[in-house]
Automatic annotation (TrEMBL):
Residues 295-305, 312-323 have a biased composition (Low complexity). It comes from Streptomyces cyaneogriseus subsp. noncyanogenus. Residues 1-66, 194-217, 295-349 are annotated as: Disordered. Residues 1-46 have a biased composition (Basic and acidic residues). This is SpdB2 protein. It comes from the Bacteria. Residues 47-60, 194-213 have a biased composition (Basic residues).
Length: 370
C-alpha cells in the first residue's frame, strides 16, 4: 500500500517537473520571439532612417545638379524667352484683330517663325552644318523678330512712347538672348568634343579635295564599293585598289610619271656623288678599293724597291755561285726586304676610320676592351 502512495507521489512530482519545464520552454520561446520582434523593429527603423538619408542625399544631388551655373543660365534664358513671347504677343494680336479677324493667326506665325529659326540655329550647330546655313537661319529669325518689334512699336506709340519702346525691346530681346545662349553653349564645348569636331571638319575637307583632284579614281572606288556585298569593302581599300588599277601601284599618289621622275632624281644624285668623290663609280667602290688594293697598287712597277727586295739579286757569276752552294750544301738566303718611304700609297681617311673600328670590335670580342 505504501508503495502505491509513493509511486503516486513520484508521478505527481514528475508531472509537476514536466509542467515546470514546459512553462520554462514556453517562456524562453516568448522571450526569443520578443527579442526577434524588437530586433526586426530596430532594423526597420534603421532602414527607414537610411532610406530617408538616401532620399535626402538624392534630392541634394538633384538640386546641386539643377542649380549649376550652366543649368541656371540655360533654363533662365528659356524663361526669359517665354516671357518675351508672352509680352509681345498681346499687342500684335490686338493690332491684327483691329484690322481683321482673319489676321488672328499672323502674330503667332511671326513669333513662331522667329523661335523656330532660332531653334534651327541650335540644330545646325549640333549637326555641324556649314556656317552659311546657320547665318541664313539667324537672318530669318531676326527678320521675323524685327517685323514683330516694328508692329509692337507702332502699337505702343499710340498709347505712350515708353510703351512703344518697351514692347519693341521685349520683342527683340527674346531672340537675342536665345542667340547669345547658343553662342555660349557652342563656345563651352569640352576640349575632346572640340577636337573631334576639328578632326571631322578636316576629314570632310580632305575628302572634298580628293574628290576634286582624283575624280576618275574616286568614281571607280565608289563603283567597287557598290559592287561588293554591303559592308564588306571599305572605301579606303577600294580607293587603293582603284589607284592600282589606274596607275599600276598600290601607293596612293604615285604615278608612272612620278616613278620615272624619282628614278631620274636618284640617278642624278648618284652621278653628283660620284663626281664629288671622283673615280671609281661610287663611294662604296672607292672605299673597297682603298681597304683591299689591287696587286698593281702594291708595286709601282717592275723597278720597285719592295718587289726587288723580295727576289734574290742576280749574280754575274751563276756557275761559281752554284758550285759554291753545292759545296756548302745549303740554299741561298734572299736579302731581307727593305721598305722605303713612298713605296705604298697613303691610306684614305675613311679606310683609317674603318680599320680603327674593326680593331676595336676585335679587341672587344677577345676581351681586351678597357
Amino acid at each position: 500500500m505504501s508503495s502505491w502512495f509513493e509511486e503516486r507521489r513520484a508521478d505527481k512530482a514528475a508531472d509537476a517537473e514536466q509542467r515546470r519545464r514546459d512553462e520554462e520552454h514556453r517562456s524562453r520561446l516568448r522571450r526569443e520571439e520578443a527579442r526577434e520582434e524588437k530586433k526586426e523593429r530596430r532594423e526597420e527603423k534603421a532602414q527607414r532612417r537610411r532610406d530617408k538619408a538616401a532620399r535626402r542625399q538624392a534630392r541634394a544631388a538633384r538640386r546641386e545638379k539643377t542649380l549649376t551655373p550652366g543649368n541656371v543660365y540655360r533654363k533662365g534664358t528659356l524663361a526669359l524667352v517665354a516671357a518675351s513671347a508672352l509680352a509681345s504677343l498681346p499687342a500684335q494680336v490686338d493690332h491684327f484683330i483691329a484690322i481683321s479677324w482673319m489676321l488672328l493667326p499672323l502674330p503667332f506665325a511671326l513669333e513662331g517663325a522667329a523661335w523656330v529659326m532660332n531653334a534651327g540655329v541650335a540644330y545646325a550647330d549640333e549637326r555641324k552644318l556649314p556656317a552659311w546655313v546657320r547665318w541664313l537661319l539667324r537672318v530669318l529669325a531676326m527678320t521675323a523678330a524685327g517685323y514683330a518689334a516694328s508692329i509692337n512699336y507702332s502699337y505702343g506709340m499710340e498709347k505712350d512712347p515708353a510703351v512703344g519702346y518697351g514692347l519693341a525691346a521685349v520683342t527683340m530681346l527674346g531672340p537675342l538672348f536665345f542667340e547669345v545662349r547658343q553662342w555660349v553653349t557652342t563656345l563651352t564645348v569640352d576640349p575632346a568634343e572640340r577636337k573631334r569636331r576639328a578632326e571631322a571638319k578636316a576629314r570632310r575637307k580632305h575628302e572634298k579635295q580628293r574628290r576634286k583632284d582624283h575624280k576618275d579614281v574616286g568614281k571607280l572606288a565608289r563603283q567597287l564599293v557598290s559592287a561588293a556585298p554591303f559592308g564588306t569593302l571599305d572605301f579606303e581599300d577600294a580607293f587603293g585598289a582603284a589607284w592600282e588599277i589606274k596607275y599600276g601601284t598600290r601607293i596612293p599618289g604615285m604615278t608612272p610619271a612620278l616613278h620615272a621622275e624619282k628614278l631620274a632624281s636618284s640617278k642624278a644624285l648618284a652621278d653628283a656623288m660620284d663626281a664629288a668623290n671622283g673615280s671609281p663609280v661610287s663611294t662604296r667602290g672607292r672605299l673597297l678599293e682603298l681597304l683591299h688594293p689591287a696587286p698593281s697598287a702594291l708595286a709601282s712597277g717592275p723597278g720597285s724597291s719592295q718587289v726587288a727586295n723580295q727576289i734574290p739579286p742576280a749574280s754575274s757569276r751563276p756557275s761559281a755561285d752554284a758550285s759554291k752552294a753545292a759545296k756548302k750544301g745549303s740554299r741561298l738566303r734572299p736579302v731581307p726586304p727593305v721598305r722605303r718611304k713612298g713605296d705604298t700609297a697613303p691610306y684614305h681617311p675613311l679606310a683609317k676610320v674603318a680599320a680603327a673600328d674593326t680593331a676595336r670590335r676585335h679587341a672587344v670580342v677577345n676581351g681586351h676592351h678597357h
